[in-house]
Amino acid sequence: MDPFVDESNYIAEQWLKAYAYTIATSNVDAHLDLVSRRLQVTGLSRDGFLEYREWAQRRRNDMEKLRLLRVSYRNLTLGVSSRDRIRFIVEETIKSTVGDSYIMDKEVVLNLEPDGKWREVEEHIHHVHRLSPAPQGLHHPATHSPAKPGETE
User: Which of 4, 49, 134, 145 lies in disulfide reach of 99, CB 3.0 to 4.6 Å?
Assistant: First the structure.
């Protein structure tokens, strides 16, 4: 296999693990540090897209009010990438603290920023599917022990 593809895949996997871990631990500042201030999210807003400020405000609010329990990922597929830009498609499952769950098919673009960190600059949500809510009391943030980056759930 191509070492460049292996490295890009590894970077994407590590970024997703860090992203999930910051949500599971409600570490808002670390979470926002994984996202570029140039972020644009399409497919989530009726207005067409969200820019960083609006997205960050929503995410900070959700995390500070402990609305998000965890996110997990599967079916990572790399797209066209370069040494400083990685594009991939992934299936994201979001679980809330009240038992709601959603599956999103989305495309993510990471850029290697001047400080040497990989940050998300684009997110295109292609499809959102709401799963049936879990029975009351099944998911509770105090009973969840999140996996650390590098560990799998």
Answer: 134
Total Cβ atoms within 10 A of residue 102: 14
Residues 11/86, Cβ–Cβ less than 8 Å:
yes
Tell me, what amino acid is at 49?
F
Q: CA-CA distance, 148 to 19, in Å (whole number)?
A: 10
* Local structure of residue 153 (DSSP, 8 states): -
Is the pLDDT reported for residue 130 higher than 60? yes
How many of the other CB atoms lie within 10 Å of CB of 71?
A: 18
The residue extents of the domains of the chain are: 3-137
The CATH code belonging to domain 3-137 is 3.10.450.50
**What pTM, to 2 d.p., does this model score?**
0.82
